[in-house]
Design a protein that fits this description.
elongated; CprB_TetR_C; Tetracycline Repressor, domain 2; 0% strand; mainly alpha; 10 helices; ArpA-like; DNA-binding
Length: 217
């Protein structure tokens, strides 16, 4: 007789099923329109089981945001094969773009973070981590003589995150993100022309071309 899985593992799997069902609903209709009964149905569970793990919709939304934050920060800080810090930033953006295209938890977490008055603390923490991660690469790029700008690294990092956020939002509104890879590629070409020194642009563009090859998700 096969050994039964530990109860703790089964509980974790059921909890994760609820989080994934909630993410699909939040991604589809937003926080305000997603009811707990709809989330339970989407997750293939009962409301009683849902309440066992998450007594409120807010706690469920926080769980989605925390999971999205973990996945996104892992992508942002993953080792890269790029020959330069800015190239590493480009490669990291491809990973985040891929998450947006394939992972409902990432899409839902970012959507929740942008809905006014929904959940503040965890979304603020995630964006602060995101900006800090970008700032580290920007600072390294400046020190190597790759990036040149009169702005401070923190200002550039915050702006880069804002550019990416706006790019994915517009892509979602206008094309359901079907053009997201192309849109992010274009965003980087604008930024490379603006802040990368002339004799390093070809190297960074080569990284961009490899990362967003044919914009094929």
């Amino acid at each position: 007789m096969p050994e039964r899985r530990p109860q703790q593992q089964r509980g974790h799997e059921r909890r994760q099923t609820v989080v994934e069902g909630a993410a699909r609903m939040f991604d589809r209709v937003g926080y305000g329109q997603a009811s707990l009964s709809d989330i339970a149905r989407e997750a293939g569970t009962t409301q009683g089981s849902l309440y066992f793990y998450f007594p409120s919709k807010e706690e469920l939304a926080i769980a989605v945001i925390n999971e999205q934050s973990t996945r996104s920060i892992a992508a942002l800080t993953a080792p890269t094969t790029a020959p330069s810090p800015f190239g590493g930033l480009v490669q990291a953006s491809r990973l985040i773009t891929e998450q947006l295209l394939t992972d409902p938890i990432t899409r839902a977490g970012l959507r929740l973070s942008l809905e006014q008055g929904v959940i503040q603390a965890p979304t603020t923490a995630f964006h602060e981590q995101w900006i800090a991660s970008v700032e580290e690469r920007v600072q390294a790029s400046i020190e190597l003589g790759e990036l040149q700008s009169p702005l401070e690294p923190a200002e550039l990092a915050r702006s880069f995150v804002a550019f990416f956020t706006g790019t994915q939002l517009i892509s979602n509104v206008l094309a359901g993100r079907t053009d997201l890879l192309s849109a992010v590629d274009t965003m980087w070409r604008i930024l490379i022309a603006a802040v990368i020194v002339a004799d390093r642009q070809a190297e960074v563009l080569a990284v961009l071309d490899a990362a967003f090859d044919a914009q094929d998700a």
